[in-house]
Automatic annotation (TrEMBL):
Biased composition (Gly residues): 101-111
Alphabetical list of InterPro entries matching this protein: Aldolase_TIM, GH, GH114_TIM-barrel
Transmembrane segments: 71-96
Reactions mediated catalytically: Hydrolysis of terminal, non-reducing alpha-D-galactose residues in alpha-D-galactosides, including galactose oligosaccharides, galactomannans and galactolipids
Pfam families according to UniProt: Glyco_hydro_114
Region span, Disordered: 101-127
Keywords, sorted A to Z: Membrane, Transmembrane, Transmembrane helix
Protein name: alpha-galactosidase
GO MF: alpha-galactosidase activity
Record-listed E.C. numbers: 3.2.1.22
Domain Glycoside-hydrolase family GH114 TIM-barrel: start-end pairs: 136-362
Length: 367
């Protein structure tokens, strides 16, 4: 069937086509035909079918023209509304997902929907240190701490860069020691790096050359992490701080999900608790509710900056600490307004907040 359109009809279709040409993204299949050239929608008057030249045809054309005009006007209005609605929907979707987590180092809340609590009782059994919310702390990962005179109760230090004597010195000062290691990424210069296979690690972490996301479902990866837990125990660590467990919220190269992250953390918790060590969550806001029952704390970076501190309040409500870090741009020189902005956020109420430089050296200012 070939439709003959009046000038108004063509104008309506032209308007629709212009709207479609600006459509944000691929067109739905049902609208693709509207993006075609207008040449198919009308024919020059001198190329009408011969039957159209008869008087009856002329009358029929007049009747069809009125019906066609109404049809095309309604169709045009409906499609324009559809295009606008879909465009608004896509726009809203992009806007709402603009704060989604990635591996650029910002925040840690993530975009995944929260999971329900995990009921793995094996992950809670054992005797281990259970710190209370509000406890003071310091974190030094760039090098072994050179100043241990700070009046804080907890030090978070690197597992590999510190020996047992550093930890025993901190213990002698009445400190508890958390030992940091990356559980979800391959780091090329760690003593056990050669034990990973090529299939264990995927895409590179943005901003961290040579560091790759790990397949935390891999048996080999889990064996290596079990050995790291044994090393932490042998050095006298009171707890462990496993980093980069939010591969599900990044372009890792693997099919990681919040559920696989919870399973991995359950595995680590059972191992840590078996050595009488406690263990915490690092960032990963989407799995707070699923892990708060079997983990002993949260370590969060920049939740004030990214306005997501409310995600980590369940730890405070459970009487467990949120070890919270903000990285002011001007550190180590911080204005009073910058300090107040980082320390006085109402959603971070009860957090153990410290201000640090991004490389996590000895410098610290607490709240």
């Amino acid at each position: 069937m070939i439709f003959t359109l009046s000038g108004n009809n063509v104008l309506a279709l032209s308007t629709i086509q212009r709207s479609i040409s600006n459509f944000p993204g691929p067109l739905p299949r049902s609208l693709v035909w509207l993006a075609m050239s207008p040449s198919w929608t009308s024919r020059p008057r001198d190329k009408l079918d011969e039957t159209d030249a008869t008087p009856n045809a002329s009358a029929n054309r007049s009747c069809l023209s009125r019906r066609s005009k109404r049809f095309w006007t309604l169709l045009a209005a409906g499609i324009i509304l559809l295009v606008v609605a879909i465009g608004l929907g896509i726009g809203l979707g992009v806007g709402l997902s603009g704060g989604s987590g990635d591996d650029s180092g910002d925040g840690g809340g993530g975009s995944s929907a929260p999971l329900p609590p995990n009921n793995n009782t094996n992950a809670t059994s054992g005797e281990y240190w259970k710190p209370a919310s509000g406890i003071s702390w310091q974190i030094v990962l760039q090098n072994p701490p050179t100043d241990t005179s700070l009046n804080v109760s907890v030090y978070d230090i690197d597992l590999f860069d510190n020996n047992a004597s550093t930890i025993s010195t901190l213990h002698a000062q009445g400190r508890k020691v958390i030992c940091y290691f990356s559980a979800g990424s391959y780091e090329p210069k760690r003593p056990d790096s050669s034990q990973f296979t090529k299939s264990d690690y995927g895409k590179e972490l943005k901003g961290w050359p040579g560091e790759h996301w790990l397949n935390t479902n891999s048996t080999n990866v889990r064996n290596i992490m079990s050995a790291r837990l044994a090393l932490a125990s042998s050095k006298g660590c009171d707890g462990v701080d496993p980093d980069n467990v939010d591969g599900y919220d990044n372009d890792s190269g693997f099919s990681l999900t919040p559920s696989t992250a919870v399973d991995f953390l359950s595995f680590l918790a059972i191992g840590a608790h078996g050595y009488n060590m406690s263990i915490g969550l690092k960032n990963a806001g989407a799995i707070v509710n699923a892990t708060v029952d079997f983990l002993q704390w949260e370590v969060n970076e920049q939740c004030v900056q990214y306005q997501e501190c409310d995600l980590f309040q369940p730890f405070i409500e459970a009487g467990k600490p949120v070890f919270h870090i903000e990285y002011p741009d001007s550190a180590p020189t911080i204005s009073s307004s910058a300090r107040n902005g980082a320390c006085d956020d109402s959603e971070a109420h009860g957090f153990s907040t410290v201000l640090k430089e991004m490389d996590l050296n000895d410098w610290v200012e607490d709240c």
